[in-house]
Amino acid sequence: MVASFALSPLPALLNASLLAFISGSIPLATTLTSTLLAVSPSGDLSINPTPKILLQASSAHVFAFSSTGNLLLDLSEGEFDLDTWEKAHDKAKEECCKEQVSEDAMEEGKPSLQTFVERVVEGRVEKERAWKND
Fold it and tell me: Which one, of 90, 89, 116, lies nearest residue 101 by Cα?
């Protein structure tokens, strides 16, 4: 069995759902970030793979992590072993949860997913409290 497109929209849906909750001022106990990884037959990992890479992949994995780095969701399809899953998990956690963003990444406009969510939350809080500052 090879990977398919079945999992590909899930990270975007999860991330968009979180942003909708934030936009709607829904109280949340935590936030989450999610990403999709594809594993090639040779074992190479690809974060947010293109459709072509996904079709050629031997497995695909969706991971979601809380703002504290806890694994919230793991969905996988295709053929893989535990070692491959652990590598995919570690790469996804690095992508979703890295706290410090390098200057190069900031200049390239590629903050971590968690940093992006934190900025959205901070912006929303500032907007909600703006009436107090007027």
Answer: 116
pLDDT-derived band of residue 125, with 50, 70 and 90 as boundaries? confident
Q: What is the pLDDT of residues 56-94, one digit of tens each?
A: 999 999 999 998 899 999 999 999 999 999 999 999 998
Whole-angstrom Cα distance, residue 32 to residue 73?
10
Instruction: Report pTM.
Output: 0.80
Residues 6+ apart with CB under 8 A from 47: 35, 36, 37, 91, 92, 95
Gyration radius of the chain's alpha carbons: 17
Q: Is residue 33 a contact partner of residue 20, using CB atoms and an 8 Å limit? A: no
CATH class for the region spanning 10-129? alpha beta
In what side-by-side order are the strands of the sheet with 71-78? 45-47, 32-39, 59-66, 71-78
Residue 7 to residues 2, 18, 29, 59, 94, Cα–Cα distance (Å): 12, 18, 26, 11, 20
Residues in the chain: 134
Domains in the chain: boundaries: 10-129
